[in-house]
Write a structure and sequence with these properties.
single chain; 261 residues; alpha+beta; Jelly Rolls; 8-stranded antiparallel β-sheet; 25% strand; globular
């Protein structure tokens, strides 16, 4: 499913692209995204844009059958475990992101890890486009998953601090410092997948094309991932989870799909 070279690239750079892995699942994912957009959850967001539309929503796999099929039946879990070099793959959450044609709003540079209540060296997101993607593909700062400090988490609405406190490194701008940071990005076709560590700094340009950019992200954790307390409400928040620092994520909420917990 992954070559040793691809696994090494993921471990070294924090991101790698695989071609065609989910080609047979694109229609199922598209069905789920369509239902999600018609029946959004309480977490759905219509991100503020000057034109176009940037929709995102998460944590819908247990109520949208197409997403549950992807989580439980597709190659995602085994692929996640392979990339993480973990004996198990535990599902964290799903995330739908749709940029309609002519939506210039970029996705700001960020790491996912500071927004989440889980940490570990074995984490991975699978970002799967349902449309051909050229300029609006994800972009990654190679090796940033190994930085000593996490990047300051901000609100995408107004760039304000996501938490009231924390020891963070400033949000980087690799385009202003191209000699200091190596940026990875790949044109992608439906069914391709980018795998990236939660700590890898990433962003995306706006969708200036005449085509939609629908993507489904599937987030996974491995053997060493543990709950961590943050200085405020996380995203996703998962209210009432009852976990304490250092605990593995509860399997009744976050099922182990591959391997043993």
């Amino acid at each position: 499913m992954m070559t040793p070279e691809q696994i090494a690239d993921f471990q070294r750079d924090g991101a790698v692209v695989l071609r065609g892995v989910f080609a047979d699942w694109v229609d199922v994912m598209a069905e789920g995204v369509a239902q999600n957009m018609v029946q959004p959850s309480e977490y759905a967001s219509e991100n503020q844009v000057s034109q176009g539309r940037f929709f995102d929503d998460y944590c819908n796999w247990s109520r949208i059958p197409a997403f549950e099929r992807i989580v439980r039946e597709s190659p995602a879990a085994e692929l996640a475990a392979t990339a993480m070099q973990s004996k198990s793959a535990q599902f964290f959450h799903d995330h739908v992101l749709v940029k309609e044609p002519g939506t210039p709003k970029p996705t700001p540079w960020h790491q996912d890890s500071p927004y989440y209540f889980v940490e570990g060296e074995q984490t991975v997101s699978l970002w799967i486009p349902l449309d051909p993607v050229q300029g609006a593909s994800l972009r990654f700062i190679a090796g940033s998953h190994k930085w000593d400090k996490m990047v300051r988490p901000v609100s995408w609405a107004d760039d304000s601090d996501f938490y009231e406190q924390g020891d963070w490194t400033p949000v980087p701008d690799p385009d202003a410092n191209p000699d200091d940071m190596r940026v990875l990005e790949w044109p992608m076709e439906p069914g391709d997948v980018v795998l990236f560590d939660y700590r890898t700094v990433h962003g995306a340009r706006g969708n200036e094309s005449a085509n939609r950019r629908r993507a489904l992200s599937l987030r996974w954790v491995g053997d060493d991932a543990r709950y961590v307390a943050r200085p405020g409400r996380t995203s996703p928040p998962f209210p009432g989870h009852g976990m304490v620092a250092g605990q593995k994520l509860r399997t009744d909420w976050f099922p182990v799909i591959y391997g043993e917990s």
